[in-house]
Amino acid sequence: MHSNEETKRADERHVFAAFLRCAPWVNIGEHNFRNGNPPHEPDIVADRDGQFIGVEITGLDLPNLRAQESVESKAVDHARRTYEAAGGPYIEVKVRGLKIDDHKMISAVGEALALLASTNLPQAGESRVAPWEEPNPALADALDSISISRPVDLPRSYWNVGRARFVPSVSSTDIQLYIDRKNPKTKLYQTQYRERWLLLNGTHFASWGELTPECREATYISSFERVFFLGTFSDPTVTELRIY
After folding, report:
1. d(CA 88, CA 148)
2. Parallel/antiparallel/unpaired status of strands 237-243 and 44-48
3. Average per-residue pLDDT in the chain?
4. Whose CA is closest to 152, among 178, 110, 113, 122?
5. Which residues are bridge partners to 95 per DSSP?
6. The domain boundary residue, chosen from 147, 162, 177
7. I need a surface site. Which of 62, 85, 155, 195 has the fewest CB within 10 A?
8. How many C-beta atoms surround the C-beta of residue 77 within 10 A?
């Protein structure tokens, strides 16, 4: 299997595991699922009391958000590569409110973030908010917070960035567009599932935003029996959306 495909499948397992931790009320055991084999299976096949549920996963990669975060994403990617080159353990880093006005500061900020992560590693299974004002002058006015966690089931490191100073809103129109893109998938499945779910992932870089009250109250058209939104950036939660 190609390395990119292996990474995608590992990411899907990681996202679905995060979903299960946030939504114990769906009654699926934390190990009771596997990767599917698209297109004739969904991304995830879960076993709930001997009945199979097919789960399609998609990220909310909003173009306007990607443009706004392009400079910041370069700094965080530089930090990730610097940290990984040093051979540190897999971690999940959430950088909130990062703002870089000078492109020349990308490398300096990235190296400062990598150093901050490597010197503030929590114990396995734990997380912490790292102090960033000192001794990192490059970060003093550049971000709002940085948290580092070490979940035991991480398939690789994740470095995420989000803007606390400007939180983009996701509209019901955006949500429906993503549902529309996935609706045809259900016709390709060659297995009958007890239920088919769509999981909208709003937790990772270039994929997060604020789910507005208008989104929560809207009713969507879907070929899936249930649609969930996993987000937001700082404190993942699950919202089940109304469909017909």
Report:
1. 13
2. unpaired
3. 85
4. 122
5. 146, 161
6. 162
7. 85
8. 15
CA atoms within 13 A on the CB side of 219: 2
Total-model pTM? 0.70
SS (H, E, C) 201-232: ECCCCCCCCEECHHHHHCEECCCCCEEEEEEC
> In which residue are the tokens 């997380």 written?
127
Between 45-54, 93-102, 204-213, 214-223, the lowest mean confidence (pLDDT) is in 204-213
DSSP symbol at 31:
T
CATH number at residue 24: 3.40.1350
Q: Which domain holds residue 110?
A: 67-162
Q: How many Cβ atoms are within 10 Å of 95's Cβ, its own excluded? A: 30
The domain boundary, picked from 162, 190, 220, lies at: 162
β strands within the chain, DSSP E = 33-35, 44-48, 51-59, 92-96, 127-129, 145-149, 158-162, 169-170, 195-201, 210-211, 219-220, 226-231, 237-243
Count of domains forming the chain: 2
Output phi, psi for 180, to 5 deg: -60, -35
As given in the structure block, the two tokens for residue 15 are 């996202």
Tokens at 184, concatenated: 């045809």
| pLDDT over threshold 80, residue 236 | no
